[in-house]
Amino acid sequence: MTTAAPMPVPFPFAAIAGQPQLRQALLLAAVDPALGGVLIEGPRGTAKTTAARALAELLPGAPFVTLPLGASLESLVGTLDLGQALAGHELKFAPGLLARAHGGVLYVDEINLLPDALIDSLLDAAASGVNVVERDGISHRHAARFVLVGTMNPEEGTLRPQLLDRFGLCVRLRNLQDATERQAIVRARLAFDADPQGFRAAYAKEEAELAAALVRARALVVDAAALPYGDAVHEAVGALCIAAGVDGLRADLVMLRSARALAAWEGAASITDDHVQRVAEAVLLHRRHPAADAAVAPPMAPPAPHRNPGDTPARDAGDGDWGAMLPEPVGIERVKPLRPLISAQQAAPKKA
């Protein structure tokens, strides 16, 4: 009889260093799962999977569910036993991964490689907290409140703008260029691999504080009377979204909810403009219109002064095309006229 190998213990969330934007985005999504999840873009080896697993451990009794690339739509949303329903028996529902992830973290690696139908169902459930399965006029619905964490490597393709917009937050990770910071992270990982339990024990107090803070913040967010949005917050959010040239109003709603989640996480008395500014980039990164970047780009250099065709081009410091050759006049050569293949008399129709 073979025994199952023990599951590896996760790296503690409190020990994750060098990725402050990633930590904040994941914590905000855990405070308010209705934000729509977090999309993490970045190269391999930037702690994307490690951070997602560590987040699930901060939620009490939270499952960590992984959606494989080869999963079918039925395995994700669940299936209905239509035969039993038509025979008059009780409706039988076989739960899928969305049901298993309720109350926890649903992790999707390389989400950009999934079929659009699966991504649509994922994002619908992540935003609404409800999964609806319909088959031949028979429907079943169940709660599916989870933190959606999707990762992707931009070198392997991207998502359509319509799908990108439905992710609540987006974080773009980059390779660390600071030698001291890289060495500290590598040393921490080596220490964890050598003695996982001892390493986790060293961060047990910080992990417990993070978990308790999440419980308090989640209770505050579900209280409709707590942390109302003031006029100054609405004005700040509207100005940022207009400047970014976003489509629709989803960015405004997500930014307001994100600022409220951050205020709840920090135990603030009210939502301030500072909260809005600190969540704005994660909300706008994947929604910003390209024209908005062009609007803030530096002005173009003034046109070069006019020169006559016979002048020698001068080399100016600001002229990037100083080595180009000026156009020269070209003579026109006469071409021998062409003779028609048939004469005009032969081409005329004969009289009857």
Description:
The protein is built from 15 helices and nine strands. It is an alpha/beta fold and 352 residues long. It folds into two domains: 13-221, P-loop containing nucleotide triphosphate hydrolases (Rossmann fold, 3-Layer(aba) Sandwich); 223-293, Magnesium chelatase subunit I, C-Terminal domain (Helicase, Ruva Protein, domain 3, Orthogonal Bundle), CATH 1.10.8.80. The strands form three sheets. It has a five-stranded parallel β-sheet, with helices on both faces. It has a two-stranded antiparallel sheet with strand order 3-4. The protein has a two-stranded antiparallel sheet with strand order 6-7. Helix 1 (20-31) runs parallel beside helix 2. Residues 294-325 have low confidence and may be disordered.
